[in-house]
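User: I'm preparing a small set of examples for a lab meeting where we compare how different chains pack in three dimensions. I only have the primary sequence for this one, and I'd like the structure in token form so I can line it up with the others. Please keep the answer compact; I'll paste it straight into my notes.
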Amino acid sequence: MAAPVDDMFSRCVDPPKASNCVEVRFIDNVKGKGLFAKKAFKKGDTIFIERPLVSAQFLWNALYKYRACEYCLRALETAEENSRRLSGRAALSLPHPELCKVRPDRHQPCPHCQVMYCSAECRQAAWEQYHKLLCLGPSHHDPDHPLNKLQDAWRSVHYPPETSSIMIMARMVASIKQAEDKGRWQRLFSQFCSRTANEEEEIVHKLLGEKFQGQLGLLRNLFTTALYEESLSQWFTPDGFRSLFSLVGTNGQGIGTSSLSQWVHACDALELPSQQREQLDAFIDQLYKDIDKEVRIYECFLCCAGNHSCVPNAEASFPDNNFLLHLAALSDISPGEEICISYLDVCQRDRSRHSRHKILRENYLFVCSCQKCMSQMDDADLTSEDEEEVEGEGETEDEMTDV
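Assistant: Understood. Below is the structure token output for the 403-residue chain.
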């Protein structure tokens, strides 16, 4: 079921501008749809800014008291609170505290269950989209509540480092159940790629481990008890739940937000006399030595960001320290050109074609055919570990020859 064009960019901050700049086209049965430029973009241009359809903090992350807005995921603790908690130094004071952008005076709790939001606007947006149905009220800490049992079960089968969250699926269901136009929300979720039964099983296996069949059944039973909706009955069958699980596992995007790192970036931009700059830099260096460089990681469910390329012409980032995705051009883009991001980080993109394909196959279940991969078709099928062993053997032989 294809989503109408007006739905494609409805989550963008400026939908008319986005639809005038880019379009979604069907490519083929292998790649599915792609994002294409309708106008020229220069390197560094912002292509669009987009909100996720749903987002949620990782459950272990929340259990460890990493405080974030329940809607937009913005950090709720100040940079000073963040640094004190991570360093264990309760009396620590940060210089230039005015550079911290966290505003505790604006924070708003849900009046029923007390979960916290960064603003009244976020609290209202969450209530209108899904929280009215998911709010636990006085049962927030009741271990026997169906939603709490579901979250506890998820934590028992998916340990850190987390790569997904059962609450993304819960908020998907709640968003449809609460919506006046349920069909529109179903169309929005239907945009995401679907997989064959075997591919779905691979994704579930990767997320849950060797005992995934039994764990998936447990999660489905708890999910059904907590959230069953007749109009979405296909999502609650064994095959439908596996498909929903796979959809989130394939299309979810993890992001990190940190008030401390935002404060550090602001400090870096300060114009200071050389001696003050040296003192501030030394303070920050010591602070990072005192703490584990932890960032709060959350799960974002995103759309329209583009297909993968090992030589991307665009990049997704989160500069506002919340769930807003900024898609920006990494190079000049011509009208009609496909806009691609990379699902690999910078270091992974420098690895061999075989290594890149191994990562993409394991995590996203496709074989890349971008320009870089096609140009390296005749390269040896070595993983990066194999390459390192070959290089290591060569170095040892050279050393022995020199001796």
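A couple of notes for your slides: Residues 1-5, 293-299, 389-403 have pLDDT under 50 and may be disordered. The chain has 17 helices and twelve strands.

User: Perfect, thanks.
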